[in-house]
Amino acid sequence: MVGRRPWRSDPDETQTYYVKAPSPHREISSKHVEFTVAGGQLRARDLDSTNGTLVESADKPPRLLRGGNATRLDVGDVLDLGEGFRIVVGSRTRR
Questions:
Q1: Cα separation of 87 and 95, whole Å?
Q2: Direct distance between the N- and C-terminal alpha carbons of the chain, in angstroms, rounded to an integer
Q3: Is 53 exposed, middle or buried (0-12, 13-18, 19+ CB in 10 A)?
Q4: What CA–CA distance (Å, rounded) separates 33 from 36?
């Protein structure tokens, strides 16, 4: 989960990973976007953020996630949460 203050109460309470996104102008919501993996597929879901989450892909037009909508992500996709905070989807090789 990514946001200005993504944890519910104590960041050590659950096994969820939390990423704090700096947002001096408060463009990024407290709980902005959530990532999940199911069946080997990475997905992002906007958590009803105020400004949405812009997803840019090489082979698709940019799309704005809002209101709890989710999308599948591929390597190379870029998520823009606002204020220059961008997440690039990469891959990790197993050794």
A1: 24
A2: 27
A3: buried
A4: 10
Calculate the alpha carbon distances from 64 to 7, 22, 41 in Å: 24, 21, 20
Query: Which tokens is 8 given?
Result: 């519910």
For residue 92, pLDDT beyond 90 = no
Give the H/E segment covering residue 58: none
- Asked if 71 contacts 42 with a C-beta cutoff of 8 angstroms, the reply is no
Cα 33–39–40 angle (5° rounding)? 75
* Strand 53-57 to 78-82 pairing: antiparallel
Q: How confident is the model at residue 9 (pLDDT cuts 50, 70, 90)?
A: low
- pTM summary value: 0.84
Residue 55 contacts residue 88 (beta carbons within 8 Å): no
Facing residues of 53 across strands? 65
